[in-house]
Design goal:
The chain has 424 residues and is an alpha/beta fold. It is 37% helix and 17% strand. It is built from 14 helices and 12 strands. It has helices spanning 6-11, 13-17, 44-56, 82-95, 106-113, 130-143, 189-204, 209-217, 228-236, 289-300, 332-350, 359-362, 370-376, 402-423, and strands spanning 35-39, 60-63, 76-80, 99-103, 148-155, 161-167, 175-181, 218-223, 305-313, 317-320, 355-358, 381-387. The relative contact order is 0.13. Mean pLDDT is 93; it is low at 1-25.
C-alpha cells in the first residue's frame, strides 16, 4: 500500500472486503454473469492498483497471462466472477483508469460459441473434443497412407495418448518442421488449426504446386493437442482451464503451465513458482509428461528438424525468440524478415492485422517457452503464432471464425515452410 497516494488508500478499502469470498467453491461449470474487463493502466500507480486489486479479488487473466506482466499502456483483459463484478467495476471507475467491459456475460458468449450448424461427428469448421480428434488422427493415417503416418510420442499425466501425425511424401534425408497446437487448454482455435493444416496438406497435394513441393521436400510433424488432459477438462468441467492436470506436492492446486516448463531461462521472468498460479513453471524443467514427450521427440530428431511452429491464441501476433530475455538472437534480422513476410501473406486474405517481433520486446518477457527452447536446441526457424482475435471473443472465438482464421494462417505457415525448404 506504500505505493499508493493517500487518495488511492482511501478509495481502495472495499477491495479488502472481497478477500473473504475468494474462490472457496469447486471450479465453476457455468459462467453466468461473469464479466471480462479490459483496463489500460496509464502509469505505474495504475499498475500498482491492478496488482492490489487482483491480489485481493481472484481474477482470471486473459491477456497478459499474469499481473506480474502488466505495464503502463498495455491492455489488460481479465475475467471476474459474477458476485465480484459490480465491486470491481466500481473500483475501476474510482481509479480513473480507462477501462471497458469486453464481455458482459461470459456464459452467453460460451453458449453462442458453437454457432456451426454442422452435425458431423468431426468437422474442420467446428470445435472437436479430444476423443474425436484422436479418432480423426487414426482416420487421416489410414485414408492417406502415402502422405500421413501416426506415431505415439508419449502419454499424459492422466494416461491419454500423445499422437503425432507425420505428413509428407516418403523420401530419404528430408528436412522437417514441427508444428504443435493446444499447449494451453482453453485456446480451442489452436487444435482446430492443426487439424485444418493436415486437411489442407492431404487435400491439395498434387493440385496445389506450393503444397506439393512442400510435402515432396519436407516432412511436417503435427501434434494436434499438446495439453491433452487440460483440453479434455475444458470440455468436461471448466472451459476456462489453462494448465496441465498434474498434481503438485504440498498443495491442492492442480497443474503446470506447459509453456513455462521448458529449460529456456526456466522460471526466471514472466513465470511463477507458485503452483496455484496460471503461469506456474512446474517443479523442474520438463516436469510434465507432455512437455517431456515433446522435448524428447525434438531432441531425438534434431538432425532433421529445421523449423518449430507453436500455435496459441489470442492477440494476432507472430513471435520469435527470445521471450526469456530482451537480448536479440544472432538470427534476429532474418527471423524478423521472415515474420514480416509471413504476416504480409496472412493479412492479404481478410485484412487481419498482426504484429510481429521478438517475444520479450513485442509482448512481455516470459521464460520457459517451447519456442525459445527449440531455438536454443539449434532449431533456428522457431515461431509462435497468437491467432485471432484481439479480445472481442478472446478464448471463446466462435466456430464461424475457424475457417477464415485457418485459411489466413495457412498462407503464413506455407510462407515460413517455403523459406525453410529453400534456406535451411
Amino acid at each position: 500500500t506504500t505505493l499508493f497516494r493517500s487518495s488511492y488508500v482511501i478509495n481502495m478499502w472495499p477491495i479488502f472486503i472481497l478477500v473473504g469470498v475468494a474462490a472457496v467453491s469447486a471450479e465453476p461449470r457455468y459462467f453466468h454473469s461473469e464479466k471480462v474487463f479490459r483496463a489500460t493502466p496509464q502509469n505505474e500507480e495504475h499498475v500498482a492498483f491492478l496488482a492490489s486489486l487482483t491480489s485481493a479479488v481472484e481474477v482470471d487473466f486473459w491477456a497478459p497471462e499474469s499481473v506480474a506482466l502488466v505495464r503502463p499502456g498495455m491492455n489488460v483483459d481479465f475475467r471476474v466472477e459474477a458476485h465480484k463484478a459490480y465491486k470491481v467495476d466500481r473500483l475501476l471507475a474510482e481509479s480513473r483508469m480507462p477501462y471497458t467491459i469486453l464481455v458482459e456475460n461470459l456464459q452467453t458468449l460460451l453458449d453462442n460459441q458453437h454457432d456451426s450448424n454442422i452435425r458431423a461427428v468431426h468437422s474442420y469448421e467446428k470445435y472437436n473434443d479430444f476423443d474425436t480428434i484422436v479418432a480423426w488422427t487414426s482416420t487421416m493415417a489410414s485414408q492417406n497412407p502415402t502422405l500421413v503416418s501416426r506415431l505415439q510420442i508419449g502419454t499424459s499425466y492422466e494416461n491419454r495418448p500423445l499422437y503425432l501425425l507425420k505428413v509428407g511424401k516418403s523420401a530419404p534425408n528430408k528436412k522437417a518442421i514441427f508444428i504443435d497446437c493446444g499447449f494451453h487448454a482453453r485456446e480451442w482455435i489452436s487444435p482446430a488449426f492443426c487439424q485444418w493444416f493436415v486437411k489442407e496438406a492431404v487435400n491439395t497435394y498434387g493440385t496445389n504446386a506450393q503444397m506439393t513441393s512442400l510435402l515432396n521436400n519436407l516432412d511436417f510433424y503435427v501434434l494436434p493437442v499438446v495439453n491433452v488432459d487440460g483440453y479434455a477438462y475444458t470440455w468436461s468441467n471448466n472451459r476456462m482451464w489453462r494448465k496441465t492436470r498434474s498434481k503438485n506436492a504440498g498443495t491442492t492446486c492442480i497443474g503446470t503451465d506447459p509453456n513455462r516448463n521448458f529449460n529456456a531461462g526456466w522460471c526466471s521472468t514472466g513465470a511463477s513458482n507458485r503452483p496455484c498460479d496460471d503461469t506456474y513453471c512446474g517443479s523442474s524443467p520438463e516436469s510434465e509428461k507432455e512437455t517431456k514427450a515433446l522435448a524428447s521427440f525434438i531432441r531425438s530428431n534434431l538432425s532433421t528438424i529445421k523449423g518449430y511452429i507453436t500455435i496459441h491464441s489470442y492477440s494476432q501476433m507472430l513471435l520469435f525468440p527470445y521471450s526469456y530475455t530482451y537480448t536479440l538472437t544472432k538470427d534476429h534480422n532474418e527471423l524478423n524478415n521472415i515474420a514480416k513476410g509471413a504476416v504480409t501473406q496472412l493479412t492479404s486474405l481478410y485484412g487481419t492485422r498482426y504484429t510481429y517481433g521478438s517475444g520479450a520486446a513485442t509482448i512481455y518477457p516470459a521464460a520457459g517457452g517451447s519456442d525459445d527452447w527449440a531455438y536454443d536446441q539449434g532449431v533456428k526457424y522457431s515461431f509462435t503464432f497468437e491467432l485471432r482475435d484481439t479480445g472481442r471473443y478472446g478464448f471463446v472465438l466462435p466456430e464461424s471464425q475457424i475457417k477464415p482464421t485457418c485459411e489466413e494462417t495457412m498462407l503464413s505457415i506455407k510462407y515460413i515452410a517455403d523459406y525453410i525448404q529453400k534456406n535451411a
